[in-house]
Amino acid sequence: MRVLVLGHGKTGKLVAEVAAERGHGVHVLDAKENANAAALTHPFVAGFDVVIDFTTPEAVVQNMRAVLATGARMVVGTTGWYDKLDKARELVERKQAGLVYGTNFSIGVQVMLQLAKKMAESLKSCGYEFSIEETHHVTKVDSPSGTALTLAGVVQASSGVKNVPITAHREGDAAGLHVLTAKGKADKLVLAHEAHSRRGFAEGAVRAAEWLATRKGCYDFKDIYSQM
User: What is residue 10's predicted lDDT score, i.e. its pLDDT?
Assistant: First the structure.
């Protein structure tokens, strides 16, 4: 499989390494080479089976428009752009393209979301107060994280709670820590996921690209990760 990686930051570099380790051909474009998505012409994109984006919320929207308009397949690990998701879906359908997006490509985080759903359902109407705390590296642009927002959405939908407060921290080079707490009058439950490195995100993104290579349509990673 031929993979184009957009973004040469820490996660983008790992994505390229993991893809190469898994036997794929890899080409990387950094921000300077792809300002305003100028490099993503139809002939250039056609040379790859899947495009993987780990850039910024500002860059990813332009990248998606350019790539999906060619009918190509794309995995987007960048967050902070979901207000444009409906337009992205429309473009995927219109151009018969392929898109996998997700707030977190770690398999461990996906399991955490399933556990959070069960936890919230079990504690529904029991008087527990839910809260979320997340910690990431100082260069992370969006705050709170997309994963924290997804986690809050899961808890709200499963427990009936209208609002789950999120506290966000930006510290050093932290890869990612998410903690869900349910506090009751008699006890407290804590569910946590801590990433020791970004490799889990990179491996999930590459596996998503392998899965998408033979498919079209728009998919949320949390709905398809168990099929990979």
Answer: 87
Q: Which residue has the tokens 């987007």?
A: 76
Q: Are 88 and 67 in contact (CB under 8 A)?
A: no
Percentages helix, strand, coil for the chain (3-state, rounded to 5) are 40, 25, 35
CB 47 within 8 A of CB 72: no
Which member of 27, 84, 137, 140 is catalytic?
140
Instruction: Look up 136 and say whether it is catalytic.
Output: yes
DSSP class of 46: T
Nearest-angstrom CA–CA distance, 191 and 182: 9
Q: Are 52 and 3 in contact (CB under 8 A)?
A: yes
Q: What is the predicted pLDDT for the residue at 175?
A: 87
Could you tell me the domains of the chain? 2-105+199-227 (3.40.50.720), 107-194 (3.30.360.10)
Q: Say whether the peptide bond before residue 165 is cis (omega within 30 degrees of 0).
A: no
pTM, whole model, 2 decimals? 0.85
Q: What is the pLDDT of residue 67?
A: 98
Q: Which of 8, 24, 136, 178 is catalytic?
A: 136
- Residue 98 pairs in a beta bridge with 73, 217
Bridge partners (DSSP) of residue 193 are: 178
Mean pLDDT across 119-140: 95
The C-alpha atoms of residue 92 and residue 21 are separated, in whole angstroms, by 29
pLDDT computed for residue 142 by the predictor = 85
